[in-house]
Amino acid sequence: MSNVPSTKPYLVRALYEWCVDAGFTPHVAVVVDDTVRVPRAFVRDGQIVLNIAPDATHQFNLDNEALSCQARFGGVAQMLYVPIANIAAIYARENGQGMAFEVEPKPDAAAPAAAAADDADGADTVAPESSGGDDSPTPPEGGRPHLRVIK
Description:
By secondary structure, the chain is of the alpha+beta class. Helices cover about 15% and strands about 30% of the residues. The protein has helices at about 10-20, 110-120, and strands at about 25-30, 45-50, 55-60, 65-75, 75-85, 85-90, 100. The strands form two sheets. Strands 2-1-6-7 form a four-stranded antiparallel β-sheet. The chain has a three-stranded antiparallel β-sheet with strand order 3-4-5, with no helix packed on it. A hairpin with a 5-residue loop joins strand 6 and strand 7 (about 100). The radius of gyration is 16 Å and the shape is globular. The termini are far apart. Residues about 110-140 have low confidence and may be disordered.
């Protein structure tokens, strides 16, 4: 029975489809670690919330392993990659209905890999238990960033 696939990717896809079919805007809350590719400037407290509505993404793919798509941040298109294991919740922005999931931290892999990723793509170490040394960037002032659809 150890080869039974996880129900999580199926539930995430079902809730995504429900949101889209009902005319809601699906959002995912993601726990960011070294396996997640998102713009690190928008990560707050080791998490990021992504609007994954069809009109906010391009090349959207949601399979059993990961969510991937192209989205704009600050007007710049960027490829995103989120392993299913890092999705903490999926919900409708309009009414908050959805589902939360438990995300287990990856043992011993986060710190060394994050440091290597820092050199590769400008990633920050986002572990909440980090010492907060001088090399961590200061978050921009002025509140949470947001995406806006321009027609």
